[in-house]
Amino acid sequence: xxxxxxxxxxxxxxxxxxxxxxxxxxxxxxxxxxxxxxxxxxxxxxxxxxxxxxxxxxxxxxxxxxxxxxxxxxxxxxxxxxxxxxxxxxxx
Length: 92
Known about the structure:
mainly alpha, 4 helices, 11% strand
């Protein structure tokens, strides 16, 4: 794995954030289709030059697609939310 990163201008508590760190943080948002236009542009521009991030994105996307296609949602009783709220209020 190449450890030579271009430094990003954003700072964290631990110091400057690398481009790859930012891309990892954006991964789920991009795959879920919830990213801003600016974030999408940044993300895909970075993938053009970083093979490691490209592969990570591809694997993550395949995993999410597999889970979406193979995990079936189960319906829960309509009164479940009310029951949970009642129990929470009783314990407070």
